[in-house]
Automatic annotation (TrEMBL):
This is L-seryl-tRNA(Sec) selenium transferase. Its cofactor is pyridoxal 5'-phosphate. It catalyses: L-seryl-tRNA(Sec) + selenophosphate + H(+) = L-selenocysteinyl-tRNA(Sec) + phosphate. Belongs to the SelA family. Keywords: Cytoplasm, Protein biosynthesis, Pyridoxal phosphate, Selenium, Transferase.
């Protein structure tokens, strides 16, 4: 053995010692440490100088970072309600309870209980969904991206595969979702019409050929165009489509079921009901954005089109599992139950949107009071701006309240990091010399946890 290699720590003892600290399964830690020691061996052989202590510390830091990547709860102090990096929409308590019931036992997923025969998957959910959005028919798949691909694959056949889209709607949603690329992978041929800022009915009309499969509208979920702009009314576009017997499809993105402008001082987000009433034949939207359900993509509209989509072989590849179906069923029922009294909703996004700043202020005061005097920082209350996020309503500005932490002893970055890596993790945002924790996205039942984490770090 080269003498340089003598400083390498023995794998198993180090792994066993570290496994206790990170609380991960031992085989996983052993394998992790083995890989790191091997990497160090290579470096030492290449002439890197080091010592055992440095190597052990390096491996421990990497293991800590790996342990922190394990999926775990996070307290969201960012003020962004649908935070894509923090798991988008949280679920209501009823939905979570239903999930546990179905998850820990058997269910009638594909079983007809009255007849004792094989049953239809998601039959109840599909009826409830159609009822909620006032559609002839509806179904659900794994996410909205899959829903759009499925729709395109079904409606673009052979030569008849041209999809007309306005140049102002060739959007990128994030996470690799770009309309032109989605079209390409679905075997559709993109036909762009109009200009970035203006598209007229005549532009669509001129682009129609015998090979036109559909006209596609895509909601500009995460950006806004303003100024010298124009686009045809959906009703006009629908008439044009009917004249040529071409389905009008709209990806509405977010799936807000309520008038968002009535809930909070934010923009009106187009609802599925509105799109369908105006004559769109088929829509798709996400289940885990403003709807506040599980990750899923909902397809709704004309029953012949929905039935066709469900017959696609690709449907099988993107169908929802029983856990998603359970949560989605619970979320949809919750909307149907509270349609007449939206303020009674159990959907966390909607509840969070409706909280008055005064209420947040009271919570912030009592939270700061509970933390008490701390030598390491100064805590105060500040007005803040929350947003819906998640690629919805880019202009939303919801008046909110945040706890403003001005660290004295430690650096701002260090404080933010300590909050992120403890249990439960807390994610806030920095503003000048302060760390802000917005209370609109922190549930009231999490206040105690925030107090204990802040006390632990700051006193
Ligand atoms: C968010 C969004 C999508 C993607 O939805 P996923 O459910 O994340 O797949 C597609 N289209 C629009 C317009 C969106 O806003």
């Amino acid at each position: 053995m080269s003498s340089a290699l003598k400083i390498l720590p023995p794998i198993e003892p180090l792994a066993f010692q570290l496994a206790r600290a990170v609380k991960l399964p031992k085989p996983l830690v052993v394998s992790f440490v083995r890989k790191e020691v091997t990497a160090w061996r290579k470096q030492l052989l290449e002439g890197t100088e080091s010592d055992r202590d440095t190597i052990e510390k390096d491996i421990e830091a990497k293991l800590q970072a790996f342990a922190a990547s394990r999926l775990q709860p996070v307290i969201n102090g960012t003020g962004v309600l649908i935070h894509t990096n923090l798991g988008r929409s949280p679920l209501g308590k009823t939905a979570a309870a239903a999930l546990e019931q179905i998850a820990t036992g058997y269910s009638n997923l594909e079983f007809n209980l009255p007849d004792g025969t094989r049953g239809k998957r998601a039959g109840y959910l599909e009826t409830a969904l159609a009822c909620l959005v006032n559609a002839e028919s509806a179904t659900a798949v794994n996410n909205c991206a899959a829903a759009l691909v499925l729709i395109l694959r079904h409606l673009c056949v052979g030569e008849k595969n041209e999809v007309i889209v306005s140049r102002s709607e060739l959007v990128e949603i994030g996470g690799g979702f770009r309309v032109p690329e989605i079209l390409e992978t679905s075997g559709a041929k993109l036909v762009e019409v109009g200009a970035t800022n203006k598209t007229h009915l005549a532009d669509y009309a001129k682009a129609i050929t015998p090979n036109t499969a559909i006209i596609l509208k895509v909601h500009r979920s995460n950006f806004y165009i303003e100024g010298f702009t124009a686009e045809p009314d959906i009703a006009e576009l629908s008439t044009l489509c009917k004249e040529h017997d071409i389905p009008l499809v709209e990806d509405i993105g977010s799936g807000a079921m309520m008038n968002t402008d009535e809930l909070a001082p934010i923009d009106h987000e187009p609802t599925p009901q509105e799109a369908l009433t105006k004559g769109v034949d088929l829509i798709c939207f996400s289940g885990d954005k403003l709807l506040g359900g599980p990750q899923s993509g909902i397809i709704a509209g004309r029953s012949d089109l929905v039935a066709g989509v469900k017959k696609e072989p690709f449907f099988r590849a993107v169908r929802c599992d029983k856990l998603i179906l359970t949560v989605l069923q619970e979320s949809i029922d919750e909307y149907l139950r509270t349609q007449a009294a939206p303020t009674k909703t159990d959907v966390p996004n909607l509840k969070a949107l409706a909280i008055k700043p005064e209420e947040l202020k009271q919570r912030a005061l009592s939270l700061i009071d509970s933390v008490g005097e701390c030598p390491e920082a100064e805590l105060s209350i500040t007005e803040s701006i929350a947003t819906t996020g998640g690629g919805t309503m880019p202009r939303s500005k919801i008046p909110s309240i945040a706890i403003k932490i001005t660290p004295r002893g430690i650096s701002l970055n260090k404080l933010a990091q300590q909050l992120r890596v403890g249990t439960p993790a807390i994610v806030g945002y920095t503003q000048e010399k302060h760390l802000l924790l917005d209370l609109r996205t922190i549930f009231d039942w999490q206040d105690e946890l925030v107090v204990s984490r802040l006390s632990e770090i700051l006193s």
